[in-house]
Amino acid sequence: MAAALFDISGKIAVVTGAGRGLGRGYVKELAQAGAVVICIGRHEESLRTAVQEMTAEGNTAAYFAGDVTDVNFIEEVMSKIYSAYGAINILVNNAGTEIAKPIEMVAESDFDKIVSVNIKGTYMMAKEAVKYMRRSKSGKIINIASLGSFIGLAESTVYCASKGAVVQFTKALALETAKDGISVNAIAPGYFLTEMTEEFFKDREHSAWICERIPMGRIGTYKDIAGTLIFLASKASDYITGQTVVVDGGWLAG
C-alpha cells in the first residue's frame, strides 16, 4: 500500500528546463519512477540526449524545443501534448535563469530576461496546465522556487524578487485550483552545483561562504531532491497544496 501511494507509472509529466542542470536530473528520476516524461527547453541537443538516455533504459520520453517566455509556443506545445497523450498529469516548472550583478550594473534587458523566464514562464505554463488538468479534475503542479525565495542574496536582487514571487504564486494558484483536484506546491532548492551556479563555486571565497552555511556540510545533487519531487508528484501528497518544501541541507534552519 505504501508503494502505491508513490506510484506515478503512466502519468504524463511535463518538465521545463529539462535539458540541463537540475532539470536533467528531474526528468531522469520521473522516468525511472514510471512517468511518461515530456521535456521542454531551449537547447534541442541537450533535450535530444536526455530523451535518448531515458528511452535507452526502457522509459517513455519525448521533447519539444522552445522558449517558455513565448506564450504562443506554450499554448501550442501543451495542446500537442494533450492531444498526443490524452492528459497532462504533472507539471514541473523548472525553467529558470540568473544574471548576478550589483544593482547599478543590472540593465533593463537583464531584468526583463530574469522576470520573463522565472515568473512569466512559470505562470503561463501553469495557466495552460490548469486548463487541461481541470478536464480530469486532477493534477500536480510543482514550481521550482529557491533559497532566494526566503533570504536576500547580494547581487541577485532580481533573481530573489522573482523567486519570492514563485512562492506567492504557488499559494495563490493552490487556492484557486484546490476545488478542481489540482495540487500546487513548490520545491526550494538550496545551493546545488549546476551550469547556472558553477560561477559561484569557481570563486573560492564565495564557495567557502556557501559551504560554511550548510549544516550537512556538502553541496546537494539532484538525487537529494528526487524524493521530494516524487512525493509531490504522487498520491502521497494529495492533501498538501500551497506549500513550499525547502531542500537545502539545513541552511534555513539556522
Automatic annotation (TrEMBL):
Name of this protein: NAD(P)-dependent dehydrogenase (Short-subunit alcohol dehydrogenase family)
Species annotation: Pectinatus haikarae
Family: Belongs to the short-chain dehydrogenases/reductases (SDR) family.
Segments forming a coiled coil: none
SUPFAM superfamilies xref list: NAD(P)-binding Rossmann-fold domains
Pfam families on file: adh_short_C2 (PF13561)
